[in-house]
Write a structure and sequence with these properties.
Layout lengths: L10 H14 L12 H8 L3 H13 L3 E4 L3 E4 L17 H22 L2 H18 L7 H13 L3 H16 L1 H12 L6 H12 L3 H20 L7
Antiparallel strand pairs: 1-2
Length: 233
């Protein structure tokens, strides 16, 4: 008896596969502009982040070209098999959503528990972010360090481990690596003001303020990514 491994469902890949089939069948012509992400979300009855992740998967597979401020167009290039990019990792916006919940509470705990040494390390990481932002080539190592130091300062090793794992997926999964490379090419960089507000609240031992500052920061990132399509709709 042959047993096939059970793979977890990735909703964005299901959407990408359906759109890919429509392209193959000629329902969507080469060079044609796809409907807006808002429209596609309604048609597929899924969230807009799921549609955005599907678009990223299709772009990575060479099926579409995403033109900032214009829309998503069917590519004439040789496509790749979508299954080749399925590394069983959550999509980049799923990871951002997870960070929103985990890191906001981690920041609140850090505001209550951070030592002077913790705060000094977070301050140093923020300075490193500023330094990285002045360079053309972006690795976001300082940004990752900033957030992981806050997770560590929460004093909860389970929370720290969970957040560290999310960042590891962000750094290593096929779709997330491609997605963040595209953002860097567009000049998207960590927002210093947001990080400063998070640090200030932790330094002031303001748990609610730290939680809200982290939530504002990550929600801004999510909104900027998801709402980019509106201008071209």
């Amino acid at each position: 008896m042959e047993i096939k491994a059970v793979r977890p469902e990735r909703l964005y890949l299901k959407v990408a596969e359906q759109l890919s089939e429509h392209i193959d069948n000629g329902d969507i012509a080469v060079g044609a502009r796809l409907p807006s992400e808002r429209d596609l979300a309604e048609r597929f009855a899924v969230s807009r982040p799921t549609i955005r992740e599907a678009m990223i998967a299709l772009e990575l597979a060479g099926r579409v070209e995403i033109r900032s401020g214009s829309g998503v167009y069917v590519s004439s290039g040789e496509p790749k098999d979508l299954t080749n990019i399925d590394d069983d990792a959550p999509g980049p916006l799923e990871l951002l959503e997870a960070r929103y919940f985990f890191e906001s509470d981690a920041a609140a705990l850090a505001a209550e528990r951070a030592t002077k040494r913790d705060i000094k390390a977070i301050e140093k990481a923020l300075q490193a972010i500023k330094s990285e932002n002045r360079k053309d080539e972006q690795h976001e190592k300082a940004d990752e360090r900033f957030h992981l130091l806050i997770a560590k300062a929460s004093g909860n090793s389970a929370i720290h481990a969970a957040i560290r794992h999310i960042w590891e997926l962000r750094r290593t999964s096929t779709l997330s690596v491609f997605f963040h490379e595209q953002l860097r090419k567009q000049g998207v960089k960590p927002i210093i003001r947001d990080h400063q507000e998070i640090l200030d609240a932790i330094r002031d031992s303001d748990a609610d303020g730290a939680r809200q500052a982290m939530q504002r920061h990550l929600q801004r990132v999510i909104d900027d990514i998801v709402n980019e399509d509106d201008a071209a709709a």
